[in-house]
Design a protein that fits this description.
Strand content: 25-35%
Oligomer: single chain
Structural class: alpha+beta
Number of strands: 5
Number of domains: 1
Number of helices: 3
Distance between the termini: 36 Å
Radius of gyration: 14 Å
Strand order of the largest sheet: 1-2-3-4-5
Largest sheet: 5 strands, antiparallel
CATH superfamily: START domain
């Protein structure tokens, strides 16, 4: 796997995609959905794919690996690092997907914020 990109890397603005979603749910439940492996496995992959594995170290600097499985049984691992965490209010996870060839497409950042 290539070296993971850092949160400070300079990415071209035209390659940035921001998706924002508000959930009508207690922030503690949303936080748990992102930080508990058994819950991550229930929702992370889009159907008909599944999440075959989730190992999460939810301490700042902690490593994680999430594995999505396609309908033919092929696994797609994605490694990440927890960048920031403030209880159940703020959680920033950076993922580096070794299956993407374009270094700008490989990196994704999920930021969960509670209000």
């Amino acid at each position: 796997m290539n070296a993971p990109l850092t949160i400070d890397d300079d990415f071209p603005a035209e390659r940035e995609l921001v998706i924002e979603r508000m959930f009508d749910a207690p922030r503690e439940k949303v936080y748990r959905a992102w930080t508990e492996p058994m819950l991550v496995k229930q929702w992370f992959a889009p159907l008909p794919w599944t999440t075959s594995g989730a190992a999460l170290d939810v301490r700042p600097g902690g490593r994680n690996e999430i594995v999505m499985r396609d309908p033919d049984g092929k696994d797609y691992p994605s490694a990440g690092v927890l960048r920031q965490k403030t209880a159940a209010r703020h959680y920033v996870m950076e993922h580096d997907n070794p299956n993407d060839f374009d270094r700008f497409a490989r990196r994704s950042i999920a930021s969960v914020q509670g209000y």
